[in-house]
Write a structure and sequence with these properties.
Its EC number is 2.3.1.47. This protein is an alpha/beta fold. It contains 14 helices and 14 strands. The protein has a domain of about 210 residues: Aspartate Aminotransferase, domain 2 (3-Layer(aba) Sandwich), CATH 3.40.640.
Length: about 375
């Protein structure tokens, strides 16, 4: 039918399903507030949990890095793109998290694709939590390994999958804190089962690093688990962009040989690595920010409980309110926006069918009055 026809048909279907996605142009985007079309909103859709994206120390480090190294890496790390700040950041991350090695990637999406793509071979199996991030599931389904999914956060379900025989290697994949639900994986149980089966565990802690655990070392540290493969990302609590994979010596060497995202992609700018070193220090010293965030989460949950809102059992900055119907979720999001609160509606296929929700995220930058305004707006929007 031709490319154009195919594209237009897909767009028509998307519109009919009320799943039309669009990007909104913002003129200011901060952890606590944002500006759109000349109007200011309280921002409850940011993953910048500690408010580091506009931290003066990190901006200064980026500027100094740019003055010294220029604004671009100029090549892949395998050619001439691997500079002093990359090496230092990798060493600092490895030491901080207690791993022999860390490898930098341009994004969490790339890190997951690279690690799973380079490791998984035919005959292997990847056992992933049903709600694992799209980047993990996509990497697994593109790989020659067999992908099977276990019930969300259910170690017993993983146990059943592990019981069936597999001649190849086993990789178990989960998130530390789930991006759309805010709940945490039972890492200790998952890791124990994985080890019993002779497999490796990969934890993607995009939403736990910087926030959970001592010094913000993340979900694994908090739960006293050291998975064989740990992916952390820098676009959320670190307030910047990029990612790292933590692993042992040989795995790092292996990925330097075989991970195509490292070999065929320009390295992150050295100035960004400098900024990330400053962000790492801010995270390490960020107990006050984590305390403020915890206070904001508690204030929100208490208020929401009083209003009888459908809270889910999440102790983290991600506080989804389940709506179910997609149209309704969009209408609620609009109603909140009219009241000055920016809360994105999340719809399938990002979440399972019937799982449309308002994904509220809290940050250290919110003030008590921001949270109270959100609660008031939610109350009004609910009774509409
Ligand atoms: C955001 C996210 C990613 C992608 O990381 P980017 O650096 O934004 O590409 C991967 N995994 C999870 C769980 C995420 O939430």
């Amino acid at each position: 039918m031709g490319w154009q026809q195919r594209i237009e048909t897909a767009l028509d279907v998307r519109r009919q399903q009320q799943r039309w996605r669009q990007r909104t142009l913002l003129t200011v985007n901060r952890a606590g507030w944002l500006q759109h079309d000349g109007r200011r909103y309280r921002n409850f859709s940011s993953n910048d949990y500690l408010g580091l994206s506009d931290d003066a120390r990190i901006i200064a480090a980026w500027q100094q890095g740019a003055a010294r190294y220029g604004v671009g890496a100029g090549a892949s790390g395998h050619v001439t793109g691997y500079a002093l700040p990359h090496g230092e950041l990798e060493a600092e991350l490895a030491q901080w998290l207690g791993y022999p090695r860390a490898l930098l990637f341009n994004s969490g999406y790339a890190a997951n694709q690279a690690a799973i793509g380079a490791l998984a071979a035919a005959g292997d199996r990847i056992l992933a939590d049903k709600l694992a991030h799209a980047s993990l599931l996509e990497a697994a389904s593109l790989s020659p390994a067999t992908l099977r999914r276990f019930t969300h956060n259910q170690a017993a379900s993983l146990h059943r999958l592990l019981a069936s025989p597999c001649s190849g290697e086993t990789l178990v994949v989960t998130e530390g804190v789930f991006s759309m639900d805010g709940d945490s994986a039972p890492l200790e149980e998952l890791h124990a089962l994985t080890q019993q089966a002779g497999g490796w565990l990969l934890v993607d802690d995009a939403h736990g690093i910087g926030v959970q655990g001592e010094q913000g070392r993340g979900s694994c540290w908090q739960q006293h688990v050291r998975p064989e493969l740990l992916v952390i990302t820098f676009g959320k609590a670190f307030g910047v962009s990029g990612a790292a994979l933590l692993c042992n010596e040989q795995t790092a060497d292996y990925l330097v040989q075989f991970a195509r995202h490292l070999i065929y992609s320009t390295a992150m700018p050295p100035a960004q690595a400098e900024a990330l070193r400053a962000a790492l220090r801010a995270v390490q010293q960020g107990d006050d920010l984590r305390q403020q965030l915890a206070a904001n989460i508690a204030r929100f949950r208490q208020g929401a409980r009083q209003l009888g809102l459908p809270l889910v059992p999440s102790a983290t900055a991600i506080q989804p309110l389940l709506v179910g119907d997609e149209g309704k979720a969009l209408a609620r999001s609009d109603a909140l926006r009219q009241r000055g609160c920016w809360v994105t509606a999340i719809r399938p296929p990002t979440v399972p069918p019937g799982g449309a929700r308002l994904r509220i995220t809290l940050t250290a930058r919110h003030r008590a009055e921001d949270i109270d305004s959100l609660l008031e707006a939610l109350h009004d929007a609910q009774s509409e």
